[in-house]
Every structure is written in structure tokens, then in C-alpha cells.
Write a structure and sequence with these properties.
By secondary structure, the protein is an alpha/beta fold. It has one domain: Luciferase-like domain (TIM Barrel, Alpha-Beta Barrel), CATH 3.20.20. Helix content is 45%, strand content 15%. It has 16 helices and eleven strands. The strands form two sheets. It has an eight-stranded parallel barrel with strand order 1-2-3-4-7-8-9-11, surrounded by six helices. Helix 8 links the parallel strand 7 and strand 8. It is globular and about 60 Å long. The two termini are 14 Å apart. The chain binds flavin mononucleotide.
Length: 384
């Protein structure tokens, strides 16, 4: 059986894999400076992440491509379909985990059960599922629906969906489910997942319904928040949802962060300020229209601002924790985060990503190791 981390003092490090020339900080300079996405670049990045010592890669995904300027300039584009990309990355790596985003709303449980079982069996138990319910009517219309299902109902559907998928993965006898949303009879063909009792389940729901879903069904929850205090506040909401759900197992909190590590004092902050100066306003408005138009919990982060100010704030990563500085400074920020919140894993996004930029994180890992918070994945046999 594949082992999981049982040391609560150890910090998991997940690399937010490129799903576009930029994923955050929608800066034209960053889009131009990053290597154009291709098979060899994807494989180089996955290998660099593994060699540097990251535990896992997280691949975001969404369906609708209505943002023409964003697409032209490379902001959150091109987005390769996560589960397909993951198969290529598994073939080129040995031990790094790969978490793929897949939607409950637009699929049926048996699709995801088979994709997940194949990904986990093929990789020897290195696969995780970021469960999302989707956002925006354009995405729903792409699948023939009139509108996207109402927010909280999407999570009720997702709960039933995930439980069916888990049964399809684990039960040998045919199942017979006549649920409120899904009807499933039978069993899936082998392979079944390697990870027991099930592959890693992640969610990034920030709303009350999203947190309840995570508390009931997931192993990790990704949270936003641009200060340690905000992460603490969110952790308290997560703890309350866990308590409410009557759950005894911990729900690992994973703050989403932007990272720039530089040798000289102040250099990382200067780099970020420069990137923000080339923020692509039009692409930012397009992307934010989808996110701020549809996600209440993100909109709430900038509730006191008008739409265009909120779009600029979101597009420049102001809702997210920034890990900027020298390797010592970034390591200290991570140590503070670990000791002052219930964080057990961090999701790290590098706006100026390339293999060398990832390697700039290695000295941070050395500091974390000295602090007793991290061990290289090559010395252990788990990804999470
Ligand atoms: C770091 C992070 C990554 C996310 N990745 C995706 C994604 O790839 N696809 C997607 O449809 N939603 C994604 N989301 C959105 C969440 O699934 C969720 O809809 C959002 O955080 C709002 O929570 P709520 O739905 O509970 O209101 C992501 C959110 C965060 C914070």
C-alpha cells in the first residue's frame, strides 16, 4: 500500500504547474519571458520540479475559451486538458505526485472513476483529483445546459458524485445507486486505484457550501488569503466545517501562494512591481469577468472595490499570499505560516516560471530541512 505522510510537522510543497504562459499576475512581461508551452517544456518543468524536490504538481483546468485577448497574450492560456497532460508527465517522472483538476458538473461519475483509476494505476499511486464544480454559464452552455446549476446545488451534486466515484473505485460487487442527481448501476473494469482507501481528493471551495463539501469528502483544501491572519481566519472556518461534519481526520489546509526568490535584498519585490506594471488590462478584465462574475468567495476578497479595481487586484495576485525575498526570508515566511496556522501543505505559483526559477527554490527547501519541516521526497515514499 502506498504510504501517506503521517508527520504533522512536515510541510508538503506542491508546485502550481503552468496552465498558460501566466497563471497569476497577468503580466505581458511574464507571458513573454516564460518559454512557449510545448511537450518538451512541459516535460522539462515536471522533471525540474521533481529534481528540485517538490512533492506534487497541481494542474488547474477550465473549459470555456471566451477570453480572446487573454488567449492571444498567453494569460491562463493555452490550457492543456489536465488529465491528459498528467499521463504525459507521469511517463516522464518517477515519484512526483500530479493533482489534476476535473469537473463534477460536466461529467458523469463513471468517466471520472475510470480516468482516475487509470491515472493512479499507471502512475503507481501518484495521482490526486482537484474536484471542482465549474463556474460561469459559458462553461455550462458548452455542455448543452441552459445555465450553470446554482452554486450550492452544484456542491450537493458534487458530494453525491464523489461518493459514487469512491464506491466504483473500491467495491468489487456492482453498485446500484439511485441518488438525487445520479443513477449508476454496475462496476468499472480494472485497473482500480493503487492508493487506499482512495486517491488524494482536493478541493478549493471557499464558500460555506464549498467548505462543507471539502470537510465531508476531501483530504486537502486549497485556501486563498493574502496575509497569515487571513489564512488563520480561513483555517478557523475550515475547522468549523470539519467539526460540523463530525469529521475526525484532519483536513489539510493548503494556502495558494506566489513565489519569487532572489539573491539580493528587495530584488524579488522589485521584480513583482515590474511585472504588475505590465499587467494586461484587457485580459485581466476578461479573466476576472469569469471569476469575479461567478465566484462569491473571490468577489468577497475585494468587496469594497469596484469591478475594474477588483479585477486589477485579482489579476496582480493581491488576494494571495506572496512569498517574496531571499531564500532565508521566504523560508522564514513558510515557517511562520506552518507554525501560526493549520497549514500542512503549500501551493506555490512562480509567475516567471522556467526550470531555473524552480531551482531557485532549492535553498528554501534546505532551510526548511534545517528547521525540521521538510525532507526530500526521494528519501521517502509518499507524495502527500
Ligand atoms: C488555487 C485555486 C485553484 C483553483 N483551480 C480551479 C480550476 O482549475 N478550475 C476551476 O474550475 N476552479 C478552480 N478554482 C476555483 C474553486 O474550485 C472554487 O470554485 C473557488 O475557490 C470558489 O469557491 P466556491 O465555489 O466554494 O465559492 C480554484 C481555486 C483556487 C483558490
Amino acid at each position: 500500500m502506498k504510504r501517506q505522510n503521517e508527520n504533522p510537522d512536515e510541510l508538503g510543497l506542491t508546485y502550481f504547474f503552468p496552465t498558460g504562459q501566466t497563471d497569476h499576475v497577468w503580466s505581458d512581461e511574464a507571458a513573454r519571458a516564460t518559454p512557449p508551452l510545448s511537450k518538451s517544456v512541459f516535460l522539462d518543468m515536471a522533471r525540474a520540479a521533481e529534481q528540485t524536490g517538490f512533492d506534487a504538481l497541481f494542474i488547474a483546468d477550465s473549459w470555456s475559451g471566451h477570453q480572446r485577448e487573454a488567449e492571444r497574450a498567453g494569460h491562463q492560456s493555452p490550457k492543456y486538458h489536465a488529465p491528459l497532460l498528467a499521463m504525459g508527465l507521469f511517463a516522464a517522472t518517477e515519484h512526483i505526485g500530479v493533482i489534476t483538476t476535473m469537473h463534477t458538473t460536466h461529467h458523469k461519475p463513471a468517466h471520472i472513476a475510470r480516468m482516475g483509476a487509470t491515472l493512479d494505476a499507471f502512475s503507481g499511486g501518484r495521482w490526486g483529483w482537484n474536484v471542482v464544480t465549474g463556474f460561469g454559464d459559458p462553461e455550462a452552455k458548452l455542455f448543452g445546459a441552459e445555465n450553470l446549476v446554482e452554486h450550492d446545488e452544484r456542491y450537493a451534486m458534487a458530494g453525491e458524485f464523489v461518493e459514487i466515484v469512491r464506491r466504483l473505485w473500491s467495491e468489487d460487487d456492482p453498485i446500484d445507486v439511485h441518488g438525487n442527481f445520479y443513477r449508476v448501476e454496475g462496476r468499472i473494469k480494472a485497473p482500480r486505484p493503487v492508493q487506499q482507501p482512495h486517491p488524494l481528493l482536493v478541493s478549493a471551495g471557499g464558500s460555506p457550501a464549498g467548505m462543507k463539501f471539502a470537510a465531508q469528502h476531501c483530504d486537502q483544501i486549497v485556501v486563498a488569503g493574502n496575509t497569515i491572519e487571513k489564512v488563520q481566519e480561513t483555517s478557523r472556518r475550515v475547522d468549523a466545517a470539519v467539526h460540523e461534519a463530525g469529521r475526525t481526520a484532519p483536513l489539510g489546509t493548503t494556502p495558494f501562494t506566489i513565489v519569487i526568490v532572489r539573491d539580493g535584498e528587495g530584488e524579488a519585490e522589485e521584480t513583482y512591481e515590474r511585472l504588475v506594471r505590465s499587467l494586461n488590462e484587457e485580459a485581466t478584465m476578461e479573466l476576472a469577468a469569469d471569476i469575479l462574475g461567478g465566484i462569491d468567495s473571490v468577489r468577497a476578497l475585494f468587496a469594497d472595490q469596484g469591478h475594474s479595481a477588483a479585477a486589477r487586484a485579482w489579476g496582480s495576485g493581491q488576494g494571495i499570499l506572496k512569498l517574496f525575498g531571499t531564500s532565508e526570508q521566504v523560508a522564514q515566511q513558510l515557517i511562520d505560516l506552518k507554525t501560526q496556522t493549520s497549514t500542512n501543505n503549500v501551493l506555490l505559483n512562480f509567475p516567471l516560471w522556467n526550470p531555473t526559477e524552480l531551482q531557485s527554490f532549492a535553498p528554501v527547501m534546505d532551510h526548511l530541512r534545517d528547521a525540521g519541516m521538510w525532507r526530500p521526497p526521494s528519501e521517502r515514499d509518499y507524495s502527500w
